[in-house]
Amino acid sequence: MKKNNASYYVLLFVASSLWGGSFVFTNRLLKSISPISLIFTRQIISSALFIVICLLFFRKDLKIKFKDLKIVFAFSFFEPFLYFIFETYSLKYSDPTVVAIIVATIPLFTALLAIFYFKEQFSKINMLGAIVSILGIGIMLAPSFSSTHFSSTGTALAFGAVICAVCYGFFVRKMAQGYNSAVIITYQNLIGALLFFPLFLFFFNKNQFQAEYIALHNPLNLSYILILSIFCSAIAFMFFFQGIQKMGLGKANTFTNLIPVVTALLSFFIIGEQFPFYKIIGIIVVITGIFLVQKRGKKIQEVNATISGVGD
Predict the structure, then answer these.
(1) Distance between CA 188 and CA 43 in Å, rounded?
(2) Cα dihedral across residues 256, 282, 227, 192: positive or negative
(3) Ramachandran class of 178: left when φ > 0, alpha when ψ lies in -120 to 50, beta otherwise
């Protein structure tokens, strides 16, 4: 791994860790708050906080060129908006194990996009690493397949989530360099909140809303939703955006396969889930795959990996 990339590896690791932790906190909150209400609340809180931060510290950076604003709208549409819908409803029809394995293919498809469209540097050993990291997740989830329910609808929806995530990466990669990442993520969350607002109104139920309002008076629930809003919906995306800008789409995206690893570890420490030996093996395989993605080797294509000027 390059020494000058060390800080960006840390940013990507932190982003993936925050998203991994989000599953544990979300699981707790969904017992008393509906999915649409939860995601809409997250978007509102994160947008409000970052708008204040940008007005105080980045006021000069708030202006975005119209052509780039269209790109921001595009990746905000694919994620969090469409991605959340596809992933949530895929879990309604299919077991989480199936969805997790399908979602784990996102870095592989993203790597192919990075190689053949953006001409990023990617070696054969890097591609092998992307595949190995997926196999690691498969090892972690393998025992669950014995009782897994397969559904063509759920599978199709899960692959819809994969497509949305790849499209998100495509438009983020198209974003011209030079913008403050905090400003970009503020726009993303604000647009996401506006897109979710009609759905929130459509699913609005007065009695349910009152119950959710009471649930948020619980200090633990309130702390969870603040963590999700500030760290997972804002800071994690900001770090991920910076990682893509520096390292390229393919290599940065592979770090997202750390998400189930972090989820498994936090589930063990926070909610007492079992942590058998096969999960340890799976985690080692995932980390090995991610390490291989960052290694240098014989390039698949000899091309320039810089992001400069892509959005021009």
Answers:
(1) 9
(2) positive
(3) left
Alpha-carbon distance of 106 to 108, in angstroms, equals 5
**What is the token pair recorded at 122?**
């990617």
Asked whether 171 and 75 are in contact (CB, 8 A), the reply is yes
Q: What is the pLDDT of residue 147?
A: 65
CA distances from 174 to 74, 116, 168, 235 (A): 11, 14, 10, 21
- Single-letter residue type at 274: Q
| Ranges assigned E (strand) in 122-217 | none
Mean pLDDT of 24-40: 86
Q: Which tokens hold the place of 111?
A: 């790597």
pLDDT confidence of residue 50: 92
Report whether pLDDT(178) > 90.
no
> Please, are residues 263 and 20 in contact by the beta-carbon 8 Å criterion?
yes
Are 253 and 126 contacting, i.e. CB atoms less than 8 angstroms apart?
no
DSSP label at 150?
Answer: P
CA 104 to chain centre: 11
This prediction has a pTM of 0.83
